[in-house]
Amino acid sequence: MAERADDRLVRLLGIVAYLDGAGPVPVEELAQRFGVTPARIREDIDALWVSGTPGYMPDDLIDFDAFSLENGMVTLTQSRGLTRPLRLGTREAVALVAALRAMRSTPAVQAAPGRADVVDSALAKLTAATGEAASAVDVRLGGDEDAAALGALTRALSAGRRVRLRYVDAADVVSVRDVDPWRLLTQDRATYLVAWCHRAGGRRTFRVDRMLSVQVLDVAVGRVPPERVDVDPVVQVVSDAGESAPVAVLRLASPARWVAEEVPVEQVTDLADGSFEVRLRVTNPAWLRRLVLTNAPDVLGVWPPQVAAEVVEAASAALSAYGEA
Amino acid sequence: MSAGSESGPATRPDERLLNLVIALVNTSAAMTKQQVRANVHGYGAAASTDAFERMFERDKDTLRALGVPIVTVEGSGHSDEVGYRIDNEAYALGPVDLTPAELGVVALAAQLWSDKLLRTDMSRAMTKLAAAGAGDAAEDVVAGLTPRVRAAGDAYGPLLEAISERRVVTFRYRAASTGQVRARRVEPWRIAARGGGWYVVGHDLDRDAVRVFRLSRIDGRVRVGPHPDAYRIPADVDVDAALGARVGAERTARLAVAPERATALRARAVSAPEPDAGPPVPAGRDLVVVPFKTLTPLADEIAGHGAAVVVLEPADLRSEVLRRLRAAAALPRTTEEEEPDGRTR
C-alpha cells in the first residue's frame, strides 16, 4: 500500500532534523528509529538528495556524503535550514496527551505508585512541549477493580511469578487456579488478566473484578507468552468456538441499542419501527440468559425459543422468591 | 530556467510538500503564490492557474495540520500580493527530555487507539519525538500492561476539527428512547470515552442546553460549520457530570442471598452496620451488604442472578430488579418458524 504523503513528509523532515543533531548514523539504526525498513530509508535519502531551495543547483540541495552511504552510514552535510524537529500538530498532540491521560486513569497504573509517577512526569513534559490544546479529548478506562488484587498481579507480572487465583466465573462457579500471568489488559470498563491456566491447560482470560483472591506464588512462570499476545476478551466471549457456535437472534427495542454497539454481533438489522435485530454466536448459554434477563424490558423476541423459555422460567422462580407468583 | 517550471513527470506530493517547506523556511521575507508557482519544484507542473491554486491551498492546509506554522504577510512596496513564510520561532518542538522509563510509557500509550485516524496522528507524533532525538525506551515500568480503547468511528475527525476551531457541527442523531432520527445543531466542547462508549459533550443549540451524544448513534456524516471561533468552550467542562455519573454518593444494598451463590457479590460485601435493622432476611438465606455507587449496573448484575439474590433495600434498587424480572417472566413465546433472517425467509 502506498504511504500517505503527509506521513512520509513528517519522516523526511524528521530524518534531516535528527541527523543534524546526531551526526553520522548507520542506515539500520535510522530505520529502527523511524520504524521503517532500511530500503525505505534509502528511498527517503534519494528524495532528500534532490530537494532544496529554489534554483535547485547543487549548492541549493540537501546533501549527504555519498561515500559514507555506500558503507551503510548516513552522514548529512547540508540541511538547508531543516535543523530543528517539527512541533506537534494539534491532532497529534491530542492523540498523544489523551492516550497518556487514559493510561493514567487505568486501575493497573493507579495500583502502582511508581508507575503513576512515571506517567505523570511524561505527561508534564509533553504538555509543556505541546501546549494545553490537548484537552479536547478525555478518555477514562477501567472500573472499580480491587487495588490489592491489581497490585499483586502487577508484582507477579514484573517478577515473572505464578499466581494462585480464587475466581468466580459468569455462571457463579468458584474455582482455584494456578496461572502464569501474561498481560494485564485494560479495555473500556474492565481490566482482564490474560494468562496460561495450568488447571485448564490452555490460555484463559480472567476479569480482575471476579477474582476473589490473588496469591503470588514463589514459583517462576513456566509458560511464557508468545511474541504477540492477541487480546480481545470481549470478542472472546462469543468467538472462541467461532463458526461452530450456535446462533441466537434477539429482537430489541431502541433503548437496548448498546447491545448492538458493545456486544460483538454478527449482524444488525434495523427495523422500520425503530427496533432492531442482532444475530450473535454464543458458546456460553449462561451468558446469553443473563444478557436477556438483564435487558428484558427492551427484549421483544428471542430465538431459539428454548432460550426464551429458560429465561421465563428463571425469572418466574425469582419473582416467587420476592413473593410474587 | 528554474526547476519549478520544468515539464515532465509530476513530482510526488510528499516531495513537492518538502520543497515548499524548505523554500518557506529559507525565504528572506515571504514568497507570493506566483513566486511559489514559478520557482518551487513540483508546482510548475500544474496545468492551469486554477489547478495551481487548488494544489497550493490544499498543500497549505496539509502543512498546517501537521503543525507547520505558515504565516501570511501583507503585501508591501510595489506588490499588494499576500506573501507566505514559515515562522521559524514557532516551527520547532520544544525540548522534550524524556527518560527511558517515560519513553516506555509513551510507547505503550501509542498502542491505545483502535481508530485508523487516531493511530495515524499518534504515529506521526512518535516520528516527531524520534526526530527530536528521543533515546531508547525502557518498558519494565509498564511490563505486561495493555491499555486499549475501542474505536471512536468516523465522527471523531470532524468533531475534533470543530472543537479545535470552535465551529458548530450538524448531524443526524438516533434518540435512544424513541429510535427516531433527528437533525441536531451542536457547539461541541469535548470528546470523551467512558466505559466502552464514545461521546461528544456540547451545547445543543436547538434545546439551548448541555447535551451528551453517543458517537455510535450519529447517523451519517458530521458536518462542520463554516465559521471558526463561533462560540467559547467553558473552562471547566465536567464530562462525568454531563454523562450523569453520580460520583461520590456511595450507598449500600441489603441483599438476601441463597447459600453459596452469587460469590462475586459476596466478595464485595461489607459487614452490616445494623444487622437487625430493615426488612427481615428470609429463612435459609444469608444477609449480604454490598456498597454501590450507580444503580443500573448493580440492578443488572442482581437480576442476572435470578432467584439466588433478593433485594431487601433500598427500594429503588428493588424495583429496578423487579422491573427486569417481570419483563423477563412475560417474554413473548417464540417459535422456530418465526425466527428472523432464518429458514422461513
From TrEMBL, chain A:
Name by which UniProt lists this protein: WYL domain-containing protein
PROSITE patterns, alphabetized: WYL
Span of domain PafC HTH: 7-128
Domain WCX span(s) in chain numbering: 248-319
All copies of domain WYL, residue ranges: 149-216
Regions crossing the membrane: none
The species this protein was found in: Isoptericola chiayiensis
From TrEMBL, chain B:
One Pfam family, short name: WCX
InterPro entries assigned to the protein according to its UniProt record, in alphabetical order: CBASS_pafABC_assoc_protein, WCX_dom, WYL_dom
Domain WCX as annotated: residue spans: 251-329
Residue ranges occupied by any WYL domain in the UniProt entry: 157-219
Name of the protein: YafY family protein
